[in-house]
Structure formats: structure tokens, C-alpha cells
Amino acid sequence: MAEVFHNQQLASSNEKKLNIALVGNPNCGKTTLFNALTGLRQKVANYPGVTVERKFGDFADSEGTKFRLIDLPGLYSIASRSLDEKIASDIITGSSPHEPPLDLIIVAADATNLGRGLFLCSQIDELGIPIILVLNMMDVAEKEGIKIDVQALSENLQIPIIPAVAKKEIGIPELRQAITTIKNQKKNPQKTGFLFSNIEKNGVVKPIISWFGNAHKMSAKVALIEALKVISDDKSLQRWTANSGDHELNGLVQKARESFSKNTIPWEQVEIQARYDAIDKIINKVVIHRPNPEPSLNDKIDRFLTHKILGPIIMFLVLSAIFQAVYSWAEAPMELIENSIASTGEVVRHYLPAGMLRDLLVDGVISGVGAVLVFLPQIMLLFLFVSILEDSGYLSRVAFILDRAMARIGLSGQSVIPLLSSFACAIPGIMAARTIHNTRDRLITILVAPFMSCSARLPVYTLMIGAFIPNIWFGGFFYLPALTLLGMYFLGIVISILSASLLGKFVIKGQSSNFIMELPPYRIPVWRFIFLRVYEAGSAFVKNAGKIILAISIILWFLATFPRTDSANNSNNIDQTYAGQLGHFIEPAIQPLGFDWKIGVGLITSFAAREVMVSTLGTLYNIQDADETSIGLRDAMKKDKNDITGKPVFTHLTALSLMVFFVLACQCMSTLAIIRRETNTWRWPLALFIYMLILAYSASFVLYQTGLFLGFT
Amino acid sequence: MTLDDLNPGEEAVISGYANEITDDFRLLEMGLIIGSKIKFIKNAPFGDPIQVRLRGYDLSLRRNLAKRILLSKPFLTS
Ligand SMILES: Nc1nc2c(ncn2[C@@H]2O[C@H](COP(=O)(O)OP(=O)(O)O)[C@@H](O)[C@H]2O)c(=O)[nH]1
After folding, report:
1. Final residue before a domain boundary, out of A601, A626, A649
2. Measured in angstroms, how far is the CA atom of residue A146 from the centroid of ligand 1?
3. CB A182 within 8 A of CB A156
4. Nearest residue (CA) to ligand 1, atom 13
């Protein structure tokens, strides 16, 4: 038997790591517990092909035995209805291809929320793997006047229980000791679950229990659990009736279901109802609740933070501060990084002999590294704020307040911060989508975030508007350049809303969260863990997305440099390079949008980052150090004539068409790289790239052709 | 009556679910079973969702879902 085998391993092996899983409801303090046990020795990855994070860390006990602790997603049940639950329950039941069978399961429960924790615990206890129950948040329970007789509870459940305050590391030594004790146990206690008081006497359940006892030699307890499962779940029923083709069981179950339904309990709910009934009975025996007079401190805080009028105002201020931080506070450190990269490049350039290697190092590798690092300030600042908001409990209030608006487009309030941050930059925004609990909502949010006009699009807008949109005032109030800029932001928002609805309806399957969300009590965040999360976010970006960005940077550098025409004085004629050739090559395709080959070159090079469009045009027009405000570049663009037709290359219409193209196209390798990291597959970034390209092309095409038709130039 | 009908501060007992419950298992698993006491705390500032309290924790859910949770008579808490 698997159990005995693992037990022998438990007792004998000192070299092999023993596998422990950590399971618990969301918000029960599971992450804190994980950190307390493993410290900084933890690794984060993804399960293959899915967004679910795989987090584990190693630790050893006082006897030197090594353990691997696997942190599972927060769960309410192991019924595997959602992706998180499916992965967790596969691991718990030993049927996961990604994790070895478990030797021990630590179930964490919030002592102030005992019923819900015991519900999950009861399901896990039935699997036959040794478990330890950690009753966390004992400090909060005490404050709220909840007294738990831990001894009695442990006896009732037949499970070792460790009371703990994970945040203060209280109970952690005891937990380690308990792990060692279980490891040294000679034999597994025969575990069968602790459940179900009286339902076995129910007239319609009894025959099913007997059937399992007779036909499958099950003990009474196991048979009861199985009976409740077949009553409540067709799939469980089919498993038994398919194997033996048994009509007797089928008949008994149908009778039981009818009887329950008559008593107003839908048969699908019987198992859950019976579990909670049994748990509530135990709780009534071992928990004394002397409720504090309401309102609690929590309610008092909520009086302001979710107040009808004050609530939205405070939230607006908080969100503005975050936006400000990502948008402008990050600027100084970003500039610092850019300057350091530039001077590192100069130093290398100075000491290496001129040649291919030097150019590859300086213009390819070093500036590629710069392209990665430059995102760090925004990512880390956003995660600093989001982690504080989440751990303090305010993030769920933001979602609570804004849910109504987001529900219209099939998302929930949890998508607000990721989408808002994407106006600064889609990279941190997409990463912040980790705070969205529902897998479907998270994926949709990730895929529409790139439509928000980010700060890298601004230089392109500024250049085009400055050069080609006339400074006209309407009625002394509306200013055409400003209106144009606003229009670009607006277009992105509208398309993202439409795309979100479209994706939700037709592409991304799965249950919307229906927005059932816990509103956890306000807590003071633990700084140590906040910084840990900021660090994790930064390193996840550099390690995963960073590699891709670096590789593409080098490829783009190669395209824009070779073949060399004028290697003597380094002033490359980009026209002759592969990028230039590509620009010419795609010219026929982009001509209907009003673009000539120079814009084509810009479209290729700006894949590195959208603002590169400006410097590429600068190079093409031979303007030194051109930026979006340089008059020289604007004039050169205005004067540029087509070699053959002699007509201007840029018109108002071209400028509009190009801006619209930049709103809609995914001209950003880093966005694609981070989507690859967050969704753990190339499928989504590639699909998104194509989708956005088609949208951008069609929109610019329609705009330009309609414009021509109507006689605008 | 349904959960949606309660006023802030009112408490009642869940007596069942309207319609098919197929996608409401999450609520059951979170402890909103028949016989559970549930208290209406407040509306979100823009009217939806609502905040309720049960088993010592607070939950936010949308009105269209709250409409499907049936209650027996409410009573004001002391
Ligand atoms: N008062 C108190 N707070 C805790 C305790 N354990 C964790 N917390 C806090 O509870 C919040 C949620 O904890 P976290 O570990 O993120 O929960 P998870 O969602 O289960 O991973 C954090 O703000 C923690 O600092 C505890 O024992 N007592």
C-alpha cells in the first residue's frame, strides 16, 4: 500500500526530502506560515501550461531530516471546480504529474473562521495521508472573544492541532516538533476522516452505506463518506456504476435524492450540508464565543473607507497616488538606470577595440540589459503599493467599491488596479493581475491591459500631434491637439472594453467569479513580507521575461546594424540594413495605411519599445539626438516628399493613421514577454499580437482610406 | 424573502436557494448552507455588491446572486 510505503520512507530516510503540502483557505495566513517555515529558501515557478503558481521551499528539522514544503493555492474545497482546486486536489491525492506523493499535509485554518477551515480539513482528512492542523490567528480569536478548547477539538477530530500566530512565529517551533513526531511514528494511524454525526441513521442513506459495506468491503465510516458523495455528485455515482454496471446502487441513490429534495435540500447539496452540520456540532462543543460588543474596530474603519461618499473619494486619492507613483516617481530611478547603462556602454566602448564584438556588447547586449532593467522601478513601486493594499485588506475594498462598473464588462472590481496601472506601463499592470483570484478574469485582464495607452506611446503621440495637428481652438474651450490626444486614450479604452466582452463571451471559457469575495479584516502589513513580494516580482520579471527581452533586443540590434555599409565612422545608413530592407519590403503592405518605408522601419525597430519610433525617424532624417519635441525632426517630416509622386510623405491623415496604429498594435516585445511569463504559454502572447495587429491594420486602413475618399490630406 | 431584501443591520437564517444551484457550490462550501445565520452589513457605495457577515467573516456578493439566496424571517440583532 502506498501509505505504508511512505511511512517506511518517513521513518528511515535521512537523505531524501520528505514532501509536505501546505493547504488552507485564502486569507488564513498560509503564506505567512510558509514564510515562517521556509524563510527565504523558497522558489516560485508555474505549473506547466497554466497560470497557477508553484511555490516550494526546503527546511530541516532538529534531527536533520530535510523536508520540501509545497505551498498550494488557497482553497475552500478540494472539489476541483476551478483550475486552482484541480491542481491542488491532484497534488493532494497524489495524481499530479508534477509533484511526488505527499508524506504529510499541513492544513492551516483561521481560528476566527473555524467552520470554513474545518470544512476543507475534513475533506483532506479523508485521504489517508497524515495531517496536522494549524490553528492560526489565535491572537485575533482571543481579541474577538473566541475561546477554543484545542485539546477537546484535537480529540474530536483525531488530528494533532497546533495553535499559532504565524505573524509572530508563535507556534512554529511546536509545528516543527509535531512534524518530527509524525515522521518518527512507526505506523500510520488508520485515518478515515472525522465526520458525520447522525446522518448515517437517515433511512435513505443507510441502505447505500450497507451496499458499499457489502459490495466493496468498506468500513462504516468510509462507506458513509462514499454514500454522501454518490448522492451529491453524478460523477462519483457514475464511477461506481460504470465499474460494476450496478443498478441496485443507482436505484438506492435515486430514492435518496428524491427523499432529500422533498425535504427541501437539493440532492447536490447533501454532502456539503452534512459536512457543515457535523462540523457545527463539533464547534458548538469546543468553542466558546463571547462576542465583543459591536461595532468592532473593523466596522469603524469601514464606516469611512466604504462610506457612500467618503469611500469613493478616499479610494480616488489612493489610486491617484499609486498611479502617480508608477507614472512619475519611477521616472528618476528609470533615468538613473538608463544613464548607468549608457555610461557602462561608454566605458566598454572605450576599453575594447573597435569592431563587431564591441558593437555587439555595447549596442546589443548592454543596451538590451538596459531595456530589461528599466522596467524594474515601475514594477517594484507598483508591487510595493499593491502588496501593502492587499495585506492591509484595503485592496478588496477597492474591488468592493468599483465592482459595479467592472461588472458591466464581465470583469470584477479586482481588475481595476492592473488596468489602471497599464496606463503607465502594461508590464507592471499585467503582473499586478496576480491579485485577481479568478483565473478567467485574470486572463482577460492580462489580454486587454495592452490597449491602455501607456507612457511609451506618448512620445509618438506628441511627435505626431506636434507636427501635424493644427493648433485650433473650438469655441475657446476645445483645443484640437488636446482633443486628439484624449481621443487616442479613449480609443484604447473602448477597444479594451469591447475586447473584454468578446473574450469573455467567446474565447475564454470558465466560470466568472460571480464576484464572491471575502472582505478580510484590516491588518497592519508585515514589512518583511511586503519586501519579499516586491523582490519576487522584480526577480520573476528579470529572470523570465528578461531573457526574452534581451534576446529580441539583440536580434533587433542585428537587423538595424547589418549589413554594414559605412563601418568607418559608425554613422550607419539604416536605409541599407536588414531593418531598412524590411521597411522597404513591407512598404506595399502598409501603403494603404498611408505609411512609407521609413515608418515601416520604425514599426520594426519600435518593437523593442514604442518610443524607439521617434529615435528611428530621427536617424532616418539625420537629426542628431532627436526626441519627440525637437523642431528639426518635425520640420524634416513635414518637408519630406515622396521620391516618385513628389507628394508629402506625412499628412494630417498619415499622422492620425499612425497614432491609431500605435494605440492598437502590440508594438512591444516586453509586453509579449511578460504575458508569456504570466500565462506560462506562448499561445496567448502570440494570439494577442496577431489580434492587435489585425485590429491596428484594419483601423488605420479604414481611417486612411475613408479620409482619402472624403478628400482630407 | 431573499438576502437581497434585508436592510443594513438585519439578520436572518438561510432557508434555501432559488433555481438551479449548479454554480453556487462556492457559496455552500464557504458555509452559506441551510440553517446558517447571515447578517446584512451594507451596500457598496454604488449600490452593488453587498457586504454580508456569517460565521465570523465578511463576504461581498453581487445582488443578482443575493436574490437567489432564500431566507426565513429576519430579526434585528440586539
Ligand atoms: N493577527 C495575525 N495576523 C496574521 C497572522 N498570520 C498572518 N497574518 C496576517 O494575515 C494576512 C493574510 O496573511 P497571508 O499569509 O497573506 O494569507 P494567505 O492568503 O492565507 O496566504 C497578512 O496581513 C498577515 O500578516 C496571525 O497569526 N495573526
Report:
1. A649
2. 18
3. no
4. A29
Chain B residues with CB-CB distance to A307 below 8 A: 45
Share of chain A above pLDDT 70, in %: 90
Cell triple for A493: 479604452
Which positions in chain A touch B35 (Cβ < 8 Å)? 277
Q: CA A707, CA A628: separation in Å to the nearest integer?
A: 25
What is the ipTM for the molecules in this complex? 0.94
HSE-CB of A320 using CA atoms within 13 angstroms: 6
Whole-prediction pTM value? 0.84
Residues A208 and A242 in one domain: yes
Q: Specify the amino acid at residue A1.
A: M
Q: Which of these CATH numbers, 2.30.30.90, 3.40.50.300, 3.30.70.20, 3.50.50.60, describes B3-72?
A: 2.30.30.90
Distance in Å, CA A28 to ligand 1 centroid: 6
Question: For chain B, which residues make up each domain, given as ranges?
Answer: 3-72
Q: In sequence order, what are the residues at sequence separation of 6 or more whose Cβ sits closer than 8 angstroms to the Cβ of residue A621?
A: A632, A633, A636, A637, A640
Query: pLDDT value at position A607?
Result: 87
Does a structural domain hold residue A659?
Answer: no
Q: Supply A399's cell numbers.
A: 474591488
Inter-chain residue contact A273 with B60, CB threshold 8 Å: no
- B2, β-bridge pairs: B70
Residues A605, A642 within the same domain: yes
* A119, A268, A403: residue with CB nearest B21: A268
Question: Could you list the residue range(s) of the whole structural domain that residue A539 is in?
Answer: 330-374+527-649
Listed residues A625, A649, A673: the one ending a domain: A649
From residue A297, alpha-carbon distances to A95, A293, A303, A546 in Å are 45, 11, 10, 44
CA A439 – CA A335 distance, rounded (Å): 36
